[in-house]
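can u pls check wat happens w/ adenosine monophosphate
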Amino acid sequence: MANRYAATYAQWQADPSAFWAEAAGAIDWFRAPAIAFDGERGVYGHWFPDGEANTCYNCVDRHVAAGRADQPALIYDSPVTGRKRHFTYAEMLAEVQAIAAVLTDLGVARGDRVIIYMPMVPEAVFSMLACARIGAVHSIVFGGFAANELATRIDDCRAKIVITASCGIEPGRVVAYKPLLDAAIEIAAHKPERCLMLQRPELEAPLVSGRDVDFTAAVARAKQGGLTVSCVSLRATDPLYVLYTSGTTGQPKGVLRDNGGHMVALAWSMKHFYGVQPGEVFWAASDIGWVVGHSYIVYGPLLNGNTTVLYEGKPVGTPDAGAYWRVIEEHRVSVLFTAPTAFRAIRKEDPSGSLIPKYDVSSLRALFLAGERADPDTLQWAEKVLQVPVIDHWWQTETGWPMAGNPLGLGLLPVKHGSPTVPLPGYAIDVLDDAGHPVAPGTLGNIVVKLPLPPGCLPTFWNADDRFRATCLAEFPGYYKTADAGYIDEDGYIFIMARTDDIINVAGHRLSTGAMEEVCASHPDVAECAVIGIADAVKGQIPAGFLVLNSGVSRESSLIEREVVALVRERIGPVAALKTVVCVKRLPKTRSGKILRGTMQKIADRQEWRMPATIDDPAILDEIREALATRGIGA
Ligand code: COA
Ligand code: AMP
C-alpha cells in the first residue's frame, strides 16, 4: 500500500476545518453540523458547534440497525473470577436501555453527573453508555484509588448518583468497595442521592437503606417493564464525561470530553491510525478507569463496529505470562493495545517468549504501546517474539487520542526505536525553549501543540476554565502545553523524554509526586519531605520518599517510614505504590531553598550527575546516597 501519511497530514494542514468536516461523515448525526470549528466560543474554540448527536446511538443503536445485531460487541474475559461472557450488539442495547431506564427512574437527567466506581465488569461499560444515552455526564474513578480520592471527585463534579460494585478482585485479594464508598461519602461535602450497587458473588455488600439500590434487581425490573429509553439528541459540545487525572497539586484535574468532536476523532483514529476494520476484534488491555480504557476499550471500538475485549486480569499471574496469548487465541484478537510495562512484566517471567508458541496468535496483526515511554529494548523484544509491527504512540488524558504515532491505517513509516514516530493530523507539534522560542531539530525542549487542539481533545477542565488556561495555555501563548519534554529530529520524528512537571508514570499509571508529598507532610512527625520517581525495571518508574523528621522525635524512624507508606496507601490508594520511604537528616537544596529533586533522582538511577552550582551544602548529597544504598538503590 502506498504510504498515505504525508498526503493526509498535508491535507489536514491545508484546511483543518474541511478535513474534520469530512471525518464527521463517519458519525450519524441527528443534526449534521454546518460549521466545523468556531474559534469564538469556549476557551480556545468549539468543534461542530451546531451539530447534534448521541454517542450511545453511534456506539450501539446504529450498529444494531445496520446489521451488526448478532455480532459480539463485547467479550468479557475474567481470569480472576473464571467468568467469560459474550454480548452481541443487540444484547448490549438491551442492557444499556435497562440501565438508562433505572437511571431515569432515579431522577438522573441530562447534564447530571454520575460517578462510576467499578472494576472491569461489563456493567461498568453498559453504565457508561447508559449515561451517554440520556445525556448524563459520567466520571469513572479507578478502583485502585482510595476513599479520599473518590471523595474529591464526588465533590468536584457534584455527583448525583454513584454506580459501584461490591468488590474488585486483585490477584490474591478481594478489594471491598463498600467501605471505601461509605468513607468517601462521609468525607465528601456533597452527598450523592443514591448508589447503585452491583453485588458480586465474591463479596456481597450490605446495602444502606434509603441510599443504596441493588443494581441487578433494578435492571431486571426495568427489563421486565420493557420500557425503551431513546437516545437524547445532544449538542456536539455537550459533555460526555469528566475524567480526573493527576495535576501538580493534590487536587486532580477534571478533563472534560465533549460528544461530537470526541466521536469524530475516535472514529478517525480507529480507521486511519489503528487500521482496524469494522467487525474485527480490538483489545485494549488497560482499565476503564484510565483514558485508554475510555477511548479504546469502550468508545473507539464500538463507534467503529468492532468487538471489544474487556479483560479483568493481569499480564502475569492470572495465571501466568501466557495470559495475553491465550486471550488473543481464544477471541481471535486482531489488534492489541497495552502499556509497555505489561510487556516488561511478561518478559521478566518468560524472557524467551516460550509460552507464545503454545497458542495460535496468528490473528494478531499489530501491537500498539502507549501510556509511558516504550523503551527500545522492550519494544524490540516484543517485535522479535510476536513478529508483528509494534507501534509506540504518544498521547495523554487531556488529548483523548494519539498525538503522535506510526499510522498503521495510512501505511507504516520506517521505525525509529525510541520514537513514537510522527505527529498525526490535527496536531501541529513544536518544541520550544523555556522562553517560548522554537529550538533547532534534535534539541530538547517543551513539547507543545499549536491551538486549536483537534476534535476529541479537552475543550477545558470541568468547571475550571481559568485553571485550564493557567495550567495548559498561559505559559506558551497560542499553544497547548503537553508538560512533556523531548525533541524532534531532522526527519520530523518525535522523541518524548521526560515530564516537565512532578508527574511520574508508575506501571502506566499517572501519579503526582506533589500529591504524595502532601500526604507524607501530613504525618505529625514529618517536618519536610520530597518524593521522586526512580527507575524500575518493570514499572518504568516507582516513587521513593525522603522524610526529614521534626526535631525531638524519638520514635524509631523505621516505624515512621512504615506509617507514611500506609498513609499514602490509605489516602491515595494502593495504585500509588509508594513502598520506599527513608528518613534523612536534611534534604539537598539550592541556596534559595529549592529541593534538588532532579539530582536526587539521578543519584538513585545511577545516572551521571553534576554537583549543582547553587547547592547549599554538598555533603547532604552524600547522606542521600548513603540512605538510598541502605535500600539497595543507586550507587
Ligand atoms: N483496584 C484495587 N487495587 C488495585 C487496582 C484496582 N483496580 N489496580 C491495581 N491495584 C493495586 C494492586 O493490587 C497493587 O497493590 P499491592 O501494593 O497490594 O500489590 C497496587 O495497586 C499497585 O498496582 P500495579 O501498579 O498495577 O502493580 P502490580 O504489581 O499489581 O502489577 C503490572 C504490575 C505491570 C502487572 C500491572 O501494572 C499491569 O497489568 N499493567 C498493565 C498496563 C496497564 O494496565 N496500564 C494502565 C494504563 S494503559
Ligand atoms: P496519561 O494522561 O495517564 O495517559 O499519561 C500521559 C503521559 O504519559 C504523557 O504526558 C507522557 O508523559 C506519558 N506517555 C504516554 N505515552 C507515551 C509514549 N508513547 N512515550 C512516552 N511517554 C508517554
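Residues 245, 291, 370-374, 392-394, 396-397, 420, 482, 484, 496, 499, 505, 510 surround adenosine monophosphate (ligand 2) (CB under 6 Å).
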